[in-house]
Amino acid sequence: MPTKWIPLELLLAQKSEDGINIISRAELMILNSKNDSMVLSEKQIETFLKVQHSLGKLLYFDVENLRDFIIISPAYLVDVLKSIVTEKQFWPTGERFSNILKNLQDSGMIELNDIHYLWEQDTFNHILLHKDYMIQILVHLDVIIAPRTSLQDDHSSLQDVSFFLVPCMITKPNDTMFLKRFWQSKNSIILAYTFHEEVIPPALSYRFLSSFITSWDIKNYKERGIEKRMLFSDLAVVNIDNYHDVAVQVKTNRLIVSLIHAKTKEDIIPTLASSLQECLTAAIVRISEFYSTLSEDINSADDNSDIPFNIEFGVFCNSDICFVNHKEMPLSTDDSVWVCKKHKQRHATKGLTTWFSEKEPIDECTSSCKCTYEYDCRRLGRLEREQCPLPQHIRRLASLLSPDECRETSILLGFQLQEWKDLEYQFLHQHSNDIKFMALWSCIVKSGNISFDILRDVLENKGISSHLLCQVFRDVTIDALDMAEETLNKIPSVDTLLDLSNHIGNSTMQLAIELEVDLSYIQQIQHDHKNKLLEQTRKILMKWRQNKFPKPTILRLLKALYRVGKFGPTYQIIKNHL
């Protein structure tokens, strides 16, 4: 630990002993300025806070709306948590307190003014001084959830939210006939995250559930004239669109996800299923990373210890649901089947592998390609040839290289092997094209003078065809004959983009680069919403829609979707909103 840290650490410890639990960033800088020769720079302060947070000496969250305050007494957060999340036997007495508890147990709902009322108790009234900040902390930790409908507008904030959901406080089980009526083999496909441990840690399942219900609207289901919100202690159902619902159940060591179509599973849109799987898998992997480090066998774990679960397909078998590891499922063809070992039943695999639908391939050059990378043909002068590639050029090139080719090319461009390994760790659970792009783009940024000429020479040195560069420059032709030019030049509506976001999955970064969204904004959104892939996509699309130049047209969007292999069904979605 740097000796320059010691004075500031001692000052914070003294503040904590004096009963101060939270200080602002401005107050921290004032304390820092008192240390004469040991004053820390802004960058050193940031490192100090992150290391102290990792050691549990303070709590600092480097995300939007939270980085302006620091909790210097970590035990203080325990008081905040138990003010809302606690057993019935410890709940305060009184009519209003009883009504708050009943609402929490039945529906998980709590009004903002009821949270403030809980904090007015003598035991918790010290929280009121920083009540807005603590609400933000509880939302960030997924303890309480701001309903998604309250935050559809990208400019809205928690100040506009009047009530929250607290899933871990719900004790009421599912009392509807929804599953019996709609959860059937003819219209549902099932995916399960089966954990290696016998029981899923409750905190993990609740955080996953929070990520799930903040991504889509909770379904309202009418039964016997009574409309019910489909959020229970053993079931949560969200509505994606007019035809698709998603149900999540927790059973022993399984998180079971069911995609339910209003008519038949053959009508389930493949990009919707695969994007849903990618979003939920990204969320559960990120959440699991913390809990997997608590395993007693962490030192003896195998290489897959960071993934404490298997992904399985579920099938309706007799009166039961049987599961099979998705890697053991036969390749899906029209007549391929899987035989259940338990019941000896034969099941068609068609439809199950929709969860892992392949992205559409983009056009590739062939040996007869006439668009060889020739500058005269492309009318590129010397000035253009000596320019640095743009992010979208590097993204396209990276997507055409294998990971090994990309690593070797990056090293030839000045990247260090350790830097590549660092990126592998950072992008461990992201799209493989993300790490390849970041490696190549880091070389471009670090060097500052890598031109298209240099790129061509490096590729040829590795024996890689220069036809790849021809694909980088090639424009794409969109088959949109049923859309007028005037329509293609319109800006897509907010509803269009929100609907479209359900079909992007883990291609968010790739799409954002093609849409020319600022890279620093992309990285900030990934940092602030690392557990919520769908939220990243929504914010990226809304940010792009605000662009003044180039104009965010439907045509630009379609071309970007085509380049990242998401054109097919998304074209129809965009068309439906016109």
From TrEMBL:
Signal peptide: none annotated. Residues 493-566 form the Death domain. PROSITE patterns: DEATH_DOMAIN. One of its GO terms (biological process) is signal transduction. It comes from the Eukaryota. Pfam families: Death. InterPro entries: DEATH-like_dom_sf, Death_dom. This is Death domain-containing protein. It comes from Mytilus edulis.
